[in-house]
């Protein structure tokens, strides 16, 4: 009997089996985790807005625990503690989803380096965002930190949207997929969107919804900023309309994204006007915040489709 026949069969190590389980191409596992990551990053903007708009920003007065000596809110904190802690709780699944995407594309890090880098950036920014949230609490809802906290969330949503677009396309060299004038107009629209969101963050930071009844905003005049915020908003709406009409007239493959962008911005403008004329009701301010993130994500998808893979 040959010597090799007497050797016992040895199972491959668990580490090797796990590596073989990881996908070598984009599959359902990656798609599901990527969408969960994107949705949770939008949801945490909504819950973060709820924290601020209900005056629950200091519902938990410490971080990473809720209050000294207790990880969870105590009965004395009331509903504000529950709302703030619920927002913090979402950070756990959000980080797990981001890490899950990174792990799933690990075996593809050479063939699809773009997906691996995007996933790694999202994980890094989620961790940074958690640390910024800690400083927001430690600094008792300083306006600049609160605004930066929201801005980082919007950036993460845009990067997550980039992953969603790229995972549906093959990797490799990319070439222009739209006429140059249309591409330039798209980038100008992106600049108008960035300015609108930035001024909107300043406006909200100076407004009445500071996150806690004892925190009073000083500095910028919120009523003046509200008017200033509307100017780039109307420019943005006009540019989005021109983009959509141009894409439809030329039957460009990006026309679906331009129509979606125009629709979201139109709703955003309507909500903004209504909330400004009705004393900034909390629910409308929260919707306005979420729509801003979705507008940025939709624009990102449009911009990512200005180029296409060669193959």
Automatic annotation (TrEMBL):
InterPro entries documented for this protein: COX15/CtaA_fam (IPR003780), COX15/CtaA_HemeA_synthase (IPR050450)
UniProt-annotated location(s): Membrane
A Pfam family of this chain: COX15-CtaA
Top-rank taxon: Bacteria
MF terms in GO: metal ion binding; oxidoreductase activity
Residues that span the membrane, as ranges: 32-53, 90-108, 115-138, 144-164, 184-206, 231-249, 256-277, 283-306
GO biological process, alphabetically ordered: heme A biosynthetic process
Protein topology in the membrane: Multi-pass membrane protein
UniProt pathway: Porphyrin-containing compound metabolism
GO CC annotations, alphabetized: membrane
Position of the signal peptide: none
Main location: membrane
Record keywords, A-Z: Cell membrane, Disulfide bond, Heme biosynthesis, Iron, Membrane, Metal-binding, Oxidoreductase, Transmembrane, Transmembrane helix
Name listed for the protein in its UniProt record: Protein required for cytochrome oxidase assembly
Native organism taxonomy: Bacteria, Bacillati, Actinomycetota, Actinomycetes, Micrococcales
């Amino acid at each position: 009997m040959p010597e090799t026949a007497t050797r016992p069969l040895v199972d491959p190590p668990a580490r090797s089996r796990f590596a073989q389980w990881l996908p070598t191409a984009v599959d359902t596992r990656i798609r599901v985790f990527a969408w969960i990551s994107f949705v949770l990053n939008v949801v945490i903007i909504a819950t973060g807005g709820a924290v601020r708009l209900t005056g629950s920003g200091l519902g938990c007065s410490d971080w990473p625990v809720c209050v000294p000596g207790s990880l969870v809110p105590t009965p004395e904190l009331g509903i504000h503690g529950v709302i703030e802690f619920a927002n913090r709780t979402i950070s756990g699944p959000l980080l797990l989803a981001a890490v899950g995407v990174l792990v799933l594309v690990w075996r593809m890090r050479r063939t699809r380096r773009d997906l691996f880098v995007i996933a790694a950036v999202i994980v890094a920014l989620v961790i940074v965002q958690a640390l910024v949230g800690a400083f927001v609490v430690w600094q008792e809802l300083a306006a600049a930190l609160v605004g930066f906290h929201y801005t980082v969330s919007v950036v993460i949503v845009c990067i997550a949207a980039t992953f969603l677009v790229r995972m549906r396309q093959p990797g490799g060299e990319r070439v222009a997929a739209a006429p140059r004038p249309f591409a330039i107009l798209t980038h100008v629209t992106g600049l108008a969107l960035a300015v609108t969101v930035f001024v909107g963050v300043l406006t909200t930071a100076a407004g009445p919804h500071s996150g806690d009844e004892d925190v009073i905003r000083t500095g910028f005049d919120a009523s003046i900023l509200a008017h200033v915020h509307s100017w780039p908003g109307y420019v943005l709406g006009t540019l989005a309309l021109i983009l959509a009409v141009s894409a439809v007239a030329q039957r460009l493959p990006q026309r679906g994204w331009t129509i979606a962008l125009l629709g979201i911005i139109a709703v955003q403008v309507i909500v903004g006007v209504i909330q400004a004329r009705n004393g900034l009701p909390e629910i409308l301010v929260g919707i306005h915040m979420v729509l801003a993130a979705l507008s940025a994500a939709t624009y990102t998808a449009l911009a990512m489709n200005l180029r296409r893979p060669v193959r």
